Amino acid sequence: xxxxxxxxxxxxxxxxxxxxxxxxxxxxxxxxxxxxxxxxxxxxxxxxxxxxxxxxxxxxxxxxxxxxxxxxxxxxxxxxxxxxxxxxxxxxxxxxxxxxxxxxxxxxxxxxxxxxxxxxxxxxxxxxxxxxxxxxxxxxxxxxxxxxxxxxxxxxxxxxxxxxxxxxxxxxxxxxxxxxxxxxxxxxxxxxxxxx
Length: 196
What we know:
The chain has 196 residues and is α+β, with helices and mostly antiparallel strands. The protein has 2 helices and 10 strands. It has helices at residues 2-24, 86-93, and strands at residues 26-30, 36-40, 50-53, 57-62, 71-77, 105-117, 120-129, 132-147, 154-165, 181-192. Strands 1-4-5-6-7-8-9-10 form an 8-stranded antiparallel beta barrel.
């Protein structure tokens, strides 16, 4: 009986200790006006063009006291994806590449976050392009956390990057002349809800 009681007390203490950690996390909504995704590739060895997307939607949950309890989920609408070359944009949104008519957004959702110290993070998660979903790791760095001087509420910002093979996501057209390996960079600014 005493052992059972001790176990119950221990479970209650552990549950009670977990509450403040969970409560310390803050949800920050991604600011689509100050968030971009940039993709860079190699074209025939001569140049390294880029395309970028804006109007990013999503939420970053950040727990400064327990960074591993943090998470991120975002969607990248392909309607905003542009190389600033109209003919190429048409190809990128077409069936050879992203098939934006059928798959209007690219998605990312974290599965775990590692705190590497000095504001550096490894964000493990799943990237979804078309009907392909694969695990990737983003190397991220916190730029700043504090009160946003214009919005007058808590804000946070990160940069993140990774290298991936587009063929893993069914976007292999013209490889290897157009490199299969692409660099993905994200810069994110996010704001806590106004009620906080």
